Structure formats: C-alpha cells, structure tokens
Fold:
Amino acid sequence: MRVLARLVCTLLPLVVFLPSCSPPASSPVADVPQTSTNSDTAISIHLELGYPHDADTTDDFLVVRPQYVASFSYKRNTPNWVSWNLNSDWFGDVPRYEGNFIVDPMLPESFYHPDHNDYTNSGYDRGHMVRSEERTKTPEDNRSTFYMTNIIPQRPDLNRGVWLDFERYCESLCKDSLKQLFIVAGPVFSTPQPTIIGQHIAVPDSCFKIVVVLDRGQKRSSVTATTPVIAVMMPNRDGVRKDDWTLYRSTIDDIEARTGYDFLNDIAPSIQALIEAK
Ligand code: MN
Ligand code: MN
Structure:
C-alpha cells in the first residue's frame, strides 16, 4: 500500500483537482477512481472509508502522501479535510521534528503557499490535523506532519487543551485498546468572510474530527451499524482549555451539514445513515 501511495504521489502533479462524482468529460484525471468502491481501486489506505467531497470540487486539491491524504483549499489556504489511518504501528519514538513548519512543495505553482510566518504573532497556533506524535515511526513520517497542508489556525486553548485531550484519547484507543482508527479532521467555516491571518489564511470558527473505531486488521467491509464512531466539533476560541472533549460530541450528520462534505462515502448508504446519525 505504501508503494502504491508513493506512486500516486509521483503522479500527483498531473492531478490538478479532486474529481467529483461526475467529472466533466474533459477531466484530465479520468484514471483516478471517482469513488473507490473496490479495494483494489483505493488510492490510499487513508481513504479506506471514502473520499470526502462536496458540491464544489474546484477548491479541493488533493495531496496524497504515504502518511495521510489532505484536500487543500486555495481559497482558504487551509486543508478542507485531512484523512488518515491510525493504529499503534504508526507510533514510535523518533524525536519531534525541529524547525519551522514546511511549505508544501506538492501545491501547484499558481497557488499561494502557506508558510510558517503566516501564523507568527497571529494569536493562533499552527494546529496539526495529523498530530506530530501520531507519526513517530520514522523521521520522514514525523516531518510530513509539519507540511502546512496539514495545518489550520487553532486558538491555543483549543490546540493545547480540549483538542489535545481528544488526541490523547485516540492515542489510548490505539495503544491501550489496540484499535485501528480511520480519522478525518478539518476546519468549519460558518461565515463567507472569515478572519484572515498572515497573507491569506482563513481562520475557522470550529474544528471537527470524525473517528471510526475498528479492530486491527479490519477495513471498509468490517463497518456495520454497530461500529463505534466518535464525532466532535469544537469551537476555535479561548476558554476551552480545561474542557472535557466529551462536551463537544457531535454527529457526522451535523458535520456534513456544517461543512458540506460527504464523509464515509464508501460505506454502504444504509450503514452510513445509521452510523452518521449517532
Ligand atoms: Mn495540535
Ligand atoms: Mn456520509
């Protein structure tokens, strides 16, 4: 799977925009699966449960790495979502990457390239979606989490407080309960004119995370109506540092309504309907 993901990486400069369900006939990305319903067409383990998409795919630039898949918005200069697999195998003991956050070389030249300095003195942390600690098997894995396409502006009380609290809970599911998680996280924008920091970085009002909890070795076909899912939506503001993450439980349905994205769309619709409502 990693070899395949790397192969996709090398091809990715040719893939300009995330294909929608019904791409135009002239789409240059016809070879990319529209919805990967067969495991042999899935382009990455990180998209095992689906390929989140919304009605307007023109601002969904797909960045595929061995460590995660991100959809980047050139309008907001943040990811729309980041999707990744997590289990205890991803955790190791390499030290945290030291240095500035990294301009993502996989973005097209025509895009603004968010950089470390966009966040400096903004009042917002560089908030990882894939957490640094979740990619600590190799230095390359850890470094990959510092690309700006994995980062959104988060208030310190969120990033260092309740968001971290939930990240630690996910870590314990992997290490203590030996679960395998499929995670999607990203920003929620409630207004068309969000606050801007740095040159062009839009600040989300909230941040969401969806976690599907499976056992090790289980994949898409193992998801049933009783599969545990955890959905949270947390406000991007001060005053939440000491809050318990369970205060912010939500539903996937609610997150889909707020973001416009359809998640878990490779799960059978009847099962999706059940697990997204709970
Ligand atoms: Mn963080
Ligand atoms: Mn869905």
